[in-house]
TrEMBL record:
Keyword Transmembrane helix in annotation: yes
Superkingdom in the source lineage: Bacteria
Keywords: Membrane, Transmembrane, Transmembrane helix
Listed name of the protein: Uncharacterized protein
Length: 205
């Protein structure tokens, strides 16, 4: 099914890292606590109710747009938390298998490190268990591995980690999309309100 394939691809860690590594997504993790202290604090609401410049005394409270913004940021924060907790460090550091290969190939040329690389591949993932059918890369007992020949196993390791933990990748993706969708609503509301206000002001003149 196309939708399943699309979700699987869009939820890969290398795709989620674009937003997950951004300072904005990391900052949203603090929104649930800070927003709760500001929006749902009784003392702050009472303070606002005493100042009609902020709101009307009878209906003082967070506006719909502010609540939607809060909920949207909370949703993105959930996705950012899942990404931060479950995304493999290698994927967070490198945006592609090519970048990983170029940066780390010298390290895995050593026999002991290359053996460690093979063990990482053999561990497999939840989505594609490779323990029983792990690809083996033989280099005829050479003491050192040709760096150029490491593209295959290192690329395999990146792929294995990139598709790991689907049960965490998918909720993170949905949280991101839900949060962005919710945030768009108050943005559109504000846009049309500004247009409507300036239109009325223009007609008045």
């Amino acid at each position: 099914m196309r939708i399943v394939a699309w979700l699987e691809h869009r939820s890969r860690w290398s795709v989620l890292r674009g937003l997950g590594n951004s300072p904005i997504a990391k900052a949203t993790i603090a929104v649930p606590l800070v927003g709760y202290l500001l929006l749902f604090n009784r003392e702050i609401v009472q303070f606002l109710s005493l100042h009609t410049d902020f709101c009307r005394p009878r209906s003082c409270g967070p506006s719909l747009r502010l609540l939607l913004l809060y909920l949207g940021c909370c949703s993105i924060a959930i996705g950012a938390a899942l990404y931060g907790l479950r995304c493999p460090t290698l994927i967070k550091k490198y945006d592609s298998a090519a970048g990983f290969f170029e940066a780390e190939k010298a390290y895995f040329c050593q026999p002991r490190n290359f053996e460690y690389l093979q063990k990482l591949i053999e561990r497999g993932t939840e989505t594609e268990p490779l323990a029983k059918d792990a690809p083996m890369f033989s280099y005829n007992g050479r003491s050192e591995v040709d760096p150029n020949s490491l593209a295959d196993p290192m690329g395999e390791l990146y792929r294995v980690l990139n598709v790991s933990d689907l049960k965490f990748r998918l909720p993170a993706l949905l949280s991101y999309y839900l949060g962005k969708t919710i945030i768009i609503v108050p943005t559109v509301m504000t846009f049309f309100q500004v247009i409507f206000t300036y239109t009325l002001a223009g007609d008045a003149f």
